[in-house]
Request: fold
Amino acid sequence: MSANGGNGGSAGAGGVLELFDQLEELVTGARRVPLSASVVLNEDEALELIDRARLGLPEELERARHTVEDRGRIIAEARQEAEATLAHAEEEAERLLTEAADRAAALVSEHVLTDQARAHAATVVAEAEARAAETRSEADAYARDVMIRLEDQLARTVTTVRKGIEALPRPPMVRRRRKPAD
Reply:
């Protein structure tokens, strides 16, 4: 019987860390050898937990790889959204500039209103440029915020993976236990 109640497969939902917890329980619950720091434990149970941890580790690494791939996708989506917002702002600015130029041309044709037309056109152009700059700034701020949140999430994931790797001892020699033929 295994230490986790007979699961016998990969690390599963509990993950590699749960397997290490089970191994720790096996060692701390083992009978002590008198007058020494040694303990007596069931070798089969210990080796089974170690094998299951080895099998579960690639699953943890695969999840980390997917997280990194998701990061790229999220950044690409944020860039696309920012570019679309910027393109929309530029189109709106161009439309407003064209509208202002058209208005200015109509006003210039009238001698009496020429000065008013120039002033109004300058105001419309300035407003359009201000709106375009504000929209660009908002798009940049949004993209930056998304990337900062993604960076934080990835940093936490990388820290978790590193802790998991650091928690694993580096065996001097990999031992594989052969299972008896059925």
Notes: Residues 1-13 have pLDDT under 50 and may be disordered. The chain is about 75% helix and 0% strand.
